Amino acid sequence: MKRVLLTLICTVAAFVATAQNGTAENKPLNIKFQGYFNLGLVYCPEVIGIGPIVDASVGAAITDYFYAGVETGFHSLFNKVYFANRQYYRFDGYIPIALNMRSYLTKTKARPFVNVSLGGFVGVANLKGYGGFYFQTGAGVDIQNLSIGLGYSGLVVRETASSLYVKLGVRFGGKKY
User: What is the reported pLDDT for 166?
Assistant: First the structure.
């Protein structure tokens, strides 16, 4: 739980820091439709499992430095389970539904960002019937319409299940830089 709080504090601080880049002039907000489609891998060191990620986020670039949207997709994990001196393969999956926020650090063609998603998840496959709190935080870079990111994600039901992820995706909409 300490990791979750520290992650949230650092992410909020990054959003506040990049929000201060504007001037004191009253400029109208330049809101543009924007979204992301990502493919990736998740690795969970606790159970030594790995699996594919497919997710999408649809929302709006509210300023040149901030994006907010709704994220959903399908995340899964394949791992080995030992029970009664036998080895089994297990497939866990879940569908996250979260608010996705992204803060960009520059307005160049290669735009580094910090990312956070907060919401819930619905379990499928072996996690059927489970649901709880979902969070994800990370960093990456948008190069033109290509997005690359890596970070940390977690599921909280009674305990926290932690994992690391890497994503490769495309950005659609938004401003051209």
Answer: 93
